[in-house]
From TrEMBL, chain A:
Top-rank lineage group of the source organism: Bacteria
Organism field: Methylobacterium platani
Name recorded for this polypeptide: ABC transporter domain-containing protein
Keyword Protein transport: no
Cited SMART domains: AAA
UniProtKB/TrEMBL annotation, chain B:
Protein name per Swiss-Prot or TrEMBL: ABC transporter permease
Location within or outside the cell: Membrane
Top-level taxonomic group: Bacteria
Membrane found in the keyword field: yes
Any single Gene Ontology cellular-component annotation: plasma membrane
Length: 196, 266
């Protein structure tokens, strides 16, 4: 259970939300409403006040890196730090993630590719795979399929749905009402930095 | 027959000859439209005023024969170094950290290096201004340039690589893991000048201090020996200073919850 209580920072919040394992909540609202800030606060990437806990364990009670391995944020424009794709994954990831890699319509050779050669869509799918590789309990997705073609969108949604069936909690920022309807059961509308 | 070893001190007329050389350059710059003539003349005048003043002050301090003024001069040099480091930053740290971080680290590294230098040279008394002031000055200068380059490179790289750093943090990396490659390359950049200086010493350049000593009539071999000691001190102090400054900056740009805090840059 992910529990968020009066989470806020300067002009954003307070937000309250409780999600059970396997639940998915969409965060909707106009650009600049504070959707990304909400996800970053949940992941503790931005300083914030209020309480966030996972299965009764307060985030302040555990080290921040451990919290983020459980509650993983995926940025809309994900960053890269190594030259090749493989440099962003653990050594056993290509084998362990083969199924999801294929569902995301990425070839097995993708791990050997240089990041500079990837298209925007390939980057977005690899970033999703990278976020899943750590086995998070909560995934905070910031427009995860914004630059994907329809087939890849279906692949990404299938991967997310399969993880949800295994208990993953998802908070999704999406501007696509159809995707929100397909992927999520709950809705949190945000406007002007607060719940609308 | 060997020429007598005696100090070759230039007089006012000799300095005027040197100044003519600068004027020639300023004229060239004006003729070619480089726009450097004014800067060059201002810099020359500053050089004359600063060094004359420093010569006067140092003569007074040397004459006083007390440790207090000598340490005071070194403290002023350290403050000037702190200011220069802060002033060189394209995107400095916010608030007093801009000057405090570089200042504290350069002063600390200088204290260590000067202590080593004094232990090697054993002047009497230990604060003999003939040893302490030039030692502290040359070590501070080198630590200052290294730290200014290292810090500027580090903050620039962190801003540029923000997305990559945050991606690592979001996946559960610690702040040290996420910043390690940037810390390493900033320290390397900060150490390049002093490494070049060591490798080129004697072959490509005669270091300034050695040149001065030889011109002042000292035996070249003795001048070489003290230059070797000085270069070791410079390398040690700059290494300590750059590493300390970049590590401190990496702490300042993150917080205890392993967040990237670019809001702490001006």
């Amino acid at each position: 259970m992910l529990r968020i209580e009066s989470l806020r920072r300067d002009r954003f919040g307070p937000f309250d939300l409780a999600l059970a394992p396997g639940e998915a909540c969409a965060v909707t609202g106009p650009s600049g409403a504070g959707k990304s800030v909400l996800l970053r606060m949940i992941a503790d990437l931005d300083p914030s006040e209020g309480r966030v806990s996972l299965d009764g364990i307060d985030r302040d009670a555990i080290a921040a890196p451990l919290w983020r391995r459980c509650v993983t944020y995926l940025a809309a424009e994900p960053g890269w730090w190594a030259e090749t794709v493989a440099g962003h994954f653990s050594a056993d990831a290509p084998q362990r993630l083969a199924g999801e890699r294929a569902a995301l319509r990425l070839p097995p050779e993708v791990f050997g590719w240089p990041v500079a050669r990837l298209s925007t869509g390939e980057r977005q799918r690899l970033a999703l795979l990278r976020a899943l590789a750590g086995g998070p309990r909560v995934l905070l997705l910031d427009e995860p399929t914004a630059s994907l073609d329809p087939d890849s969108v279906r692949g990404a949604e299938a991967v997310i749905a399969a993880r949800r069936a295994a208990g993953l909690i998802v908070v999704l920022v999406s501007h696509d009402p159809a995707q929100v309807a397909r992927l999520t059961t709950r809705r949190l509308a945000v406007a002007g930095g607060r719940p609308a | 027959m060997t020429p007598a070893l005696g100090p070759l001190t230039p007089g006012p007329l000799d300095l005027a000859l040197g100044a003519g050389f600068v004027l020639l350059n300023a004229g060239l710059s004006a003729a070619l439209g480089l726009g450097l003539a004014r800067t060059m003349l201002v810099a020359s005048c500053r050089l004359v005023a600063q060094l004359t003043l420093v010569g006067l002050v140092l003569r007074t301090v040397f004459g006083l024969g007390a440790p207090g003024p000598v340490v005071g001069v070194v403290a002023v040099m350290a403050l000037a170094a702190a200011y220069e480091i802060g002033a060189r930053q394209e995107r400095p740290l916010r608030g007093p950290w801009r000057y405090a971080l570089g200042g504290l680290v350069s002063a600390g590294a200088t204290v260590v290096a000067v202590a080593v230098g004094l232990a090697a040279l054993r002047p009497h008394p230990w604060w003999d201004p003939h040893a302490l002031i030039p030692l502290a000055g040359i070590v501070l200068g080198s630590a200052m340039s290294g730290i200014a380059i290292g810090l500027n490179g580090f903050t620039g790289a962190v801003r540029r690589e923000r997305a990559g750093i945050e991606a690592r943090l979001a996946l559960g990396a610690t702040r040290d893991e996420a910043l390690a490659p940037l810390v390493r390359s900033a320290i390397r950049a900060g150490l390049i000048p002093v490494l070049n200086q060591m490798a080129a010493a004697g072959l490509i350049t005669l270091p300034g201090m050695m040149t001065g000593q030889i011109l002042a009539g000292q035996d070249p071999q003795g001048a070489a020996a003290s230059q070797i000691l000085i270069l070791f001190l410079l390398a040690g102090a700059t290494g300590l200073g750059v590493t300390g400054a970049v590590l401190a900056a990496s702490r300042r740009l993150t917080d205890a919850r392993h967040r990237l805090r670019l809001d702490r840059l001006a």
